[in-house]
Inverse folding.
């Protein structure tokens, strides 16, 4: 056995790596999520559908022009995906985002999607106060994983979240949307002008956040905007 492998085994004996999906011991070569959990993930496979039949793309029809609307997994309450996202977001496990981003990017590239027509990947930014508290934006690692496997640059600071936000709870749907639209800005319009930007987020629920990001990017001169999330919830 070559020394590095021996060392790796020794280290994993001292510090066993557990699957972040099911807490079982990881086998050598498994990366944060075990093979069994990976096989059981609820993939949407939206990228295999014609765009007109993609239910996620349909959600944006009549609202904002989105080139591709993609989500890797279905978000089901109390399911494995919720557990993984909880670890990603609240348990200091940004590596989950990177692993899922790598897997998804490879799958998209295999199917000829995004790898050759996207110029820049932009994660939805966290509110600065939340970022300071959590220490990381859970969406950055997903952007990084996608960027690595699609061979496309990503930029954490392409989109900015503006400081002032009014409480969302007392507003109606239209007011809430207007409020969200005022929350984002493009940091340097010259860096997105003429580009096809892929905006990424962890979970898509109403889609309002991604709509707002799409609008500010198009207003700043982006040629096209696509969106990709780790998971999407049914409405
Ligand atoms: Zn597992």
């Amino acid at each position: 056995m070559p020394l590095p492998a021996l060392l790796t085994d020794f280290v994993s004996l001292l510090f066993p790596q557990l699957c972040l999906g099911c807490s079982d011991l990881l086998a050598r070569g498994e990366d944060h999520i075990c093979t069994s959990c990976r096989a059981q993930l609820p993939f949407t496979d939206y990228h295999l559908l014609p765009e007109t039949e993609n239910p996620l793309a349909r959600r944006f029809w009549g609202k904002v022009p989105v080139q591709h609307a993609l989500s890797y997994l279905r978000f089901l309450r109390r399911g494995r995906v919720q557990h993984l996202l909880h670890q990603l977001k609240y348990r200091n496990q940004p590596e989950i985002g990177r692993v899922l981003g790598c897997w998804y990017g490879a799958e998209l590239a295999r199917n000829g999607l995004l790898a050759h027509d996207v110029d820049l990947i932009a994660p939805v930014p966290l509110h600065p106060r939340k970022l300071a508290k959590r220490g990381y934006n859970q969406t950055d690692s997903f952007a990084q994983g996608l960027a690595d496997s699609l061979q496309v640059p990503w930029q954490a600071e392409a989109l900015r979240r503006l400081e002032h936000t009014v409480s969302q709870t007392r507003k109606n749907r239209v007011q809430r949307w207007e409020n969200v639209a005022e929350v984002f800005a493009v940091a340097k319009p010259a860096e997105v002008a003429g580009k096809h930007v892929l905006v990424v987020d962890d979970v898509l629920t109403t889609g309002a956040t991604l709509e707002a990001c799409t609008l500010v990017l198009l207003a700043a001169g982006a040629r096209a905007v696509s969106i990709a999330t780790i998971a999407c919830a049914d409405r």
